[in-house]
Amino acid sequence: MKKLYVLLFISLIIIGKVKGQADSDQLKVFTTKEELCAAVQFTVPLQQEIDYNDEINKEGYIVYLRETFNEMLINPEIYKSDGLILFPDTSYLQSKFIVLSTDYAPGGGYSVVLLFKDKPDRIFYAWVYEFHSTKDYYLRSFKEYDTDENNSPSVGKCQRIFINQICNDEIGL
């Protein structure tokens, strides 16, 4: 009986160590899509993920964001002039992005939290203002999103939550 308890105790220690390694690996932030998709198991996106992406990518303010990112690649200085665009590294903008969440912005327009698929190591926040009279948009702010300050899942957790969308080449804008 004593041997059984010792064996059980050793088994629990080994299981605990393996689980602890899995938990710490789960929080690792991968810097490229290739690294992430090679290291973390993913599947074909669920129909709900596909439907959400199809729907959100048709929204005018999301299409405007993609167009603005493309413009920023051509002439990044234009968008840095007003001080609200805190984004020195334009290499992210070359990638498709996925929308993690949207909400109405307190100052008008929309708050968009997004992740660039090719470089999923940072999450970003965009404030897109909508002029109701003309239905035109204006990028008021674009910066790195602070997950701690906003009580949101970490970058590593977001990589796991959105893994199917990140690793699927057809999803994103």
Write the layout of secondary structure elements.
Layout: H1 2-26, H2 33-39, H3 47-56, H4 60-74, H5 76-80, E1 97-104, E2 110-116, E3 123-131, E4 136-144, H6 155-161, H7 163-166
Antiparallel strand pairs: 1-2, 2-3, 3-4
Condensed summary:
By secondary structure, this protein is α+β, with helices and mostly antiparallel strands.
Largest sheet: 4 strands, antiparallel
So how many helices?
7
Name the poorly predicted regions. 1-26
Q: First CA to last CA: what distance?
A: 62 Å
Strand-and-helix sequence, N→C? HHHHHEEEEHH
How many strand segments? 4
Shape descriptor reads globular
Strand content: 15-25%
Strand order within the widest sheet? 1-2-3-4
Helix percent reads 40-55%
SS-derived structural category = alpha+beta
Radius of gyration over all CA atoms, rounded: 20 Å
Let me know the average pLDDT. Answer: 83
What does this structure look like?
- The protein has 173 residues and is α+β, with helices and mostly antiparallel strands.
- The protein has helices spanning 2-26, 33-39, 47-56, 60-74, 76-80, 155-161, 163-166; strands at 97-104, 110-116, 123-131, 136-144.
- A hairpin with a 4-residue loop joins strand 3 and strand 4.
- It starts with a helix and ends in a 7-residue tail after the last helix.
